[in-house]
């Protein structure tokens, strides 16, 4: 269930990144979709870090007991980090005139 929610949350920023690639960078649609599929695969690979971290936390600090609300805390922390990556990719795709000068 969490993976589905994670993917639904990241769908909108993912589509925004594709739109920027295709419109602002004049990237053909097919390569943009290939890169998007690679980003989605990477995001889902990163999602696996949550259950892995939970496994280690339960084993090391909780004597095998569940994390309760800690699971949701880790989930939302992962979503925020993933959205940060999407924001970075989105901003990198904008043309130079659309970003403020760093002078």
Summarize the structure in words.
Helix content is 77%, strand content 0%. The protein has 103 residues and is mainly α. The chain is elongated and about 55 Å long.
List keywords for this structure.
103 residues; mainly alpha; 77% helix
Distance between the termini: 46 Å
Arithmetic mean of pLDDT: 83
Largest sheet: none
- Number of β-strand runs: 0
Structural class: mainly alpha
Query: Secondary-structure element order, as H and E?
Result: HHHH
Specify Rg, calculated over alpha carbons. 17 Å
Low-confidence stretches: none
Shape, per Cα inertia axes: elongated
Strand content: under 5%
The portion of residues assigned to helices is over 70%
Please, how many helices?
Answer: 4
Q: How do you describe this structure in short?
A:
With 103 residues, the protein is an all-alpha fold.
What layout of secondary structure does this protein have?
Layout: H1 2-23, H2 29-47, H3 49-61, H4 69-93
């Amino acid at each position: 269930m969490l993976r589905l929610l994670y993917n639904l949350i990241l769908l909108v920023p993912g589509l925004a990144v594709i739109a920027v690639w295709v419109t602002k960078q004049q990237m053909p649609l097919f390569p943009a979709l290939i890169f998007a599929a690679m980003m989605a695969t990477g995001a889902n690979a990163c999602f696996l870090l949550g259950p892995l971290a939970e496994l280690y936390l339960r084993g090391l600090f909780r004597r095998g007991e569940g994390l309760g609300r800690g699971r949701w805390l880790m989930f939302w922390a992962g979503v925020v980090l993933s959205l940060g990556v999407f924001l970075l990719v989105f901003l990198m795709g904008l043309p130079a005139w659309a970003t403020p000068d760093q002078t």
